[in-house]
Amino acid sequence: MKHSPVDRFAYKKSLIHLLPLEVKGPLFFIPILINSLPLNSYFLPSFFIIVALILFKISDIPLKFVLKRVLMAFPFLILVIFMNPPDKAIFFLKILSSILFFLLFLTTTPFLSIMKGMEKLGVPEVFRLLTAFGYRYFFLLTDETERSIRAWRMRGGELKKIRFGSISGILFSIFARSMKRAERIGTVMKMKGLYEENN
Amino acid sequence: MHIPEGFLDLKTLAITDGIAGALILLSAKKVEREMSSDSIARMGIATAFVFAVNMFAFPVAGGTSAHLTGVVLISAILGGWQGFICASSALFLQAILFQHGGILSLGANILNISGWGALFGSITRKSGRFYSVSGGILSFLAVMCGSITCAFELYLSGRGSFLRGATAMAVGNLFPAFIDGVITFFVLKLFKKIEAQSS
């Protein structure tokens, strides 16, 4: 698997990147909160979109990447359109500007800073630990999944034809191997004296 | 079913984030009581597993794709509270790394995906000899209940008719839910088989 670091734009040195998290967080989430208020105006969301695009330019984040990420919300938007929301145009602008500010925050903030921010906000330690574990082992498990699928294909398997037994077999073997790995990690953690039994 | 940023209004965000926050604190307390190196490693890997299998999408009818959510599965194996906190941190990772969902809408996504999944997973855990069958059925139901809750949250935010939203969400998620149920059934069946062999 080709790994592309998910926070690859977060380590640039632009003015936006250098803003401390305490400033950046509220600054970028305030427009999203304003959008969630029942204000029926074209002006504010349009203004937010322009500001977000300017900030993306300053941050040197490629607009192609931004567009790709914005488009990811569209399948959900189509489902919501079925609900026949009132003021569809304003609703669309609000969603677009909210997603842009959310992306702006994520693309200019390294994962580690977000973790530190979570600690300052008082997020429980278990939740933070699991998030860190998830981030650490996600790529490894994705690689294993890809390897298992490749091996299965070489044995004549086809993803286009759904065979629940085979897919479940692959997933189970990944799960079983993951649990084996967890045992090893647990032993290493114990040897380092981390999180010894409380009782 | 991941609600992106900007789709919910302030009132719904406050309610869902409040409830999800309280549930996270409660589950963290429950989990911390029995926290050890082994349990942390197991839950951490389970988080990465949920995160990774969510990316393992295979094509289904009409050009759409389906994937295993894995919440009922890990809750049935590790326990309800453990499954809840693992799936919630996986959802957080999906939001910050791949923008599947949002940060402010994380509470709603936690309730829709982790909440129902962990609840039904803990019921599965207690279902004795019907373990894998109930796991499959409840996994299907967890996705369907999550879709309807999602439509309700959008309705609460004034995004249109609940009935239309629930229908669109339920129909849109029917096939993925079915696949989730069948795969959960097979994986749990394999899990039971291996467990019986090793004991």
Structural description of this entry:
The complex is a heterodimer of chains A (199) and B (199). In chain A, 71% of the residues lie in helices and 0% in strands. Chain A contains 9 helices and no strands. Chain A has helices at residues 15-18, 21-35, 43-59, 63-71, 74-81, 88-107, 111-120, 125-154, 164-191. In chain A, helix 2 (21-35) runs antiparallel to helix 6 (88-107), helix 3 (43-59) packs parallel to helix 6 (88-107) and helix 8 (125-154) packs across helix 9 (164-191). In chain B, a hairpin with a 5-residue loop joins strand 1 and strand 2 (65-66). Chain B has 7 helices and 2 strands, in the order H-H-E-E-H-H-H-H-H. By secondary structure, chain B is mainly α. Chain B has a two-stranded antiparallel sheet with strand order 1-2. Classes of the chains: A mainly alpha (199), B mainly alpha (199). The interface between A and B is large, with 83 and 83 residues.
Which features does this protein show?
heterodimer; A: mainly alpha; 71% helix; B: 199 residues; mainly alpha; 7 helices; 76% helix
What is the topology?
The complex is a heterodimer of chains A (199) and B (199).
Chain A (H helix, E strand, L loop, with lengths): L14 H4 L2 H15 L7 H17 L3 H9 L2 H8 L6 H20 L3 H10 L4 H30 L9 H28 L8
Helix pairs in contact in A: 2-6, 3-6, 8-9
Chain B lengths: L9 H24 L3 H17 L4 E2 L5 E2 L4 H8 L1 H19 L7 H20 L5 H26 L5 H37 L1
Antiparallel strand pairs in B: 1-2
In a few lines, what is going on in this structure?
The complex is a heterodimer of chains A (199) and B (199). Chain A has 199 residues and is mainly α.
Q: What share of the residues of chain A does DSSP label as strand, in percent?
A: under 5%
| Beta content of chain B | under 5%
The biggest beta sheet of chain A is recorded as:
none
Count the E strands of chain B. 2
Strand count, sense and closure of the main sheet of chain B?
2 strands, antiparallel
**Number of helical segments with 4 or more residues of chain B:** 7
Along the chain, the helix and strand elements of chain A come as HHHHHHHHH
- Figure out the total of helices of chain A: 9
Identify the biggest protein-protein contact and residues per side. A-B, 83 and 83 residues
Give the terminus-to-terminus CA distance of chain A.
Answer: 42 Å
